[in-house]
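Data card: per-record layout.
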Amino acid sequence: MILKKATAAVLAVATLAGFTGCNFKYKKDIDAVIEVTDKYVEALSELDHEAVLDLTDWDEDDDEYKDIKFVLGFEFITDSVLMDKICECYEYIASTIDYSYEDGRITIDDNDATLKIQYRMVDWKKVFAGSYASYDDALAALKNSDDTIIVKDTLKYKKEKGTWKITKISKFDEAFSFVYALPNIGTEPQPTITEPTDTEPTESKSQQDLDYAETVRAYLAFMKDHEAAIKHAEKIYNKPFVTFYDLDGNGVLDMIFVSADNVNDNYSSATLHIYTYDLKTKQVIEKITVPEIAYMAEGGSFYIYVTEGAFVVSHRNGESALQHVYTDVYSLDFEEKYGIPGFTVLGSFKRDEHYEYDPATDKETYTYEYFFAQDGVNYNTCEEAVYKDSVGKLAEQVIYVIGYDYLPQKGDVEYPIVKDADTNFDHYDDIVECYKNY
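The structure for this 438-residue chain is written out next.
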């Protein structure tokens, strides 16, 4: 992919006629603003946080200063092994960042300026939705991609002592959301037996091997009935949604998949399903269902992970003005305690995030409410400290991440899962291909 960086000399030609609030009186200021913007985008593409910050009027105590340094400096990655694996992917994505704007999208009023731009970069979302044997393969896929995505932003500037400085970057987190995502990396499960026959178990074909093969065949047959819904979810949300994994360590694989609720709706929500196989009754039995784990209105972000003794599903839905974040906690030891084939809910936490924007003051306000439901349904108000302590401890105890949409950011109570966040979902067709000889 070849993405050309904009230059001040070229862009300044377009500034003379169309910009709002401008005439030849402001030509010098327009050129200066565009030059600052060129340098800013170039610094972004090089992940040079010092160069970006030099172009702003922020100091070290400002939250914006800390955010830029935190993201561009990869300070959010605390695992050195993960850092070594993923940083080249992030560096390449950043290197493709370009920007553009349209006539009439800049306003200059004496010492204040506003410029509306569009970042353009490689479509990392589409690439990360694929499955790869290594991070090198994911990097190669990024480099071979000709697809791009656009993120719109509004930059604000102020002239102080004759020098224009950036005072606000509205969509920086959205533009750099790729640093909170990971490609699907994993080794395909290797068959432990050859094609099964009707013969009795031998030394090369243990009963455990045959039980494993029987379970896999039952899952593949069951999934076939849900193929259209699973593939539709993968298409809508552009990510894999199937895996087999022994969640509770009882020696029996569990089948985990996400399927669209309406195969005829390209904006359909999607539901998480988890099944086990009963070797005695030869039945595929559902353990739990989590509705609307994927939700188009705000992307349906989610984290699915296992701790010592608990299965946790954290998912978000709602609109920009009000987001609901649920953390559903299930017991993994149901067979010992309850004798029934299903996870038992231990409780559900909910966080409501309220967002308000005042255009008159350009002020954004976030407020939060916290709730807990012992039965997972009937929520009561919860102390903030209790909520953060409980959900934070779950995130700190993660031992296996099944899948996720976007990784949490530093400051989020779920942030500790980042260190273990290698998704284990695969595409429907890849799972079928992998296990086809069972």
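Known properties of this structure: The mean pLDDT is 79. Residues 27-45 form the longest helix (19 residues).

See the next section for split statistics.
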